[in-house]
């Protein structure tokens, strides 16, 4: 599972495997590293993988990417493929920008186009949003930000926070064929992490941040 901090990843895993994963607090992420949980769903043994977001409170984005890359590389070398990747998005977010957009871009570059058929785009927190507003935001996601991913085979689902909903979301993934994401393929071919699509995306994000800081410093000097 992937997505921004506080979008419900750990709660989702807790719903699938009660007591096996800690639930994040409002501000401090409990997922500072890749966390694996073994459970059984419909009699099928499976491993749930909880990952930190690229806005984690205890890790830099660079370290977050390194943590995820290290796990994915080891899993790929061991012959372990991903049956599915669930990406979480808070339907309470009234626009896609800032860290939310950054997480989406990082996720897309990490997966690559060939793995998108194994991706589930999951919206959460429907219980604390006006249904009409939520449906409008969902339509915007489908028609814009997620459109190309949906065209490539990704599915969009809603999670209502219950164990039954969590199982319904995961159940179809148990029948899919395992897939290697783009980052795994790149690392297996000897591409340095910084030169992978995810690394390049991260470098682009850092350059944008540097430019913002440069402009802020210039404005401050002007005021002084």
From TrEMBL:
Pfam family, one: MMR_HSR1
Gene3D superfamilies assigned: P-loop containing nucleotide triphosphate hydrolases (3.40.50.300)
GO molecular function terms noted in the UniProt entry: GTP binding; hydrolase activity
SUPFAM superfamilies according to UniProt: P-loop containing nucleoside triphosphate hydrolases
Domain G: 1-73
Keyword field contains Cell inner membrane: no
Keywords noted in UniProt: Hydrolase
InterPro entries linked to this entry: GTP-bd, P-loop_NTPase
Protein name: p-loop containing nucleoside triphosphate hydrolase protein
Native organism: Exidia glandulosa HHB12029
């Amino acid at each position: 599972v992937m997505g921004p901090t506080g979008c419900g990843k750990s709660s989702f895993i807790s719903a699938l495997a009660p007591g096996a994963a800690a639930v994040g607090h409002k501000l401090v992420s409990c997922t500072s590293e890749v966390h694996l949980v073994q459970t059984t769903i419909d009699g099928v043994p499976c491993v749930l993988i909880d990952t930190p977001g690229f806005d984690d409170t205890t890790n830099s984005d660079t370290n977050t990417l390194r943590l995820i890359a290290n796990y994915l590389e080891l899993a790929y070398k061991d012959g372990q493929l991903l049956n599915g990747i669930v990406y979480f998005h808070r339907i309470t977010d009234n626009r896609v920008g800032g860290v939310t957009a950054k997480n989406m871009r990082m996720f897309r570059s990490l997966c690559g186009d060939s793995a998108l058929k194994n991706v589930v785009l999951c919206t959460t927190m429907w219980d604390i949003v006006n249904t009409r507003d939520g449906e409008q935001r969902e339509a915007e996601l489908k028609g814009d930000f997620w459109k190309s991913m949906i065209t490539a085979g990704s599915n969009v689902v809603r999670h209502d926070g219950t164990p039954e909903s969590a199982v319904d979301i995961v159940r179809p993934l148990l029948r899919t064929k395992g897939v290697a994401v783009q980052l795994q393929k790149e690392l297996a071919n000897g591409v340095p992490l910084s030169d992978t699509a995810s690394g390049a995306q991260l470098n682009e994000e850092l350059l944008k941040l540097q430019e913002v800081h440069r402009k802020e410093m210039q404005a401050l000097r002007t005021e002084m």
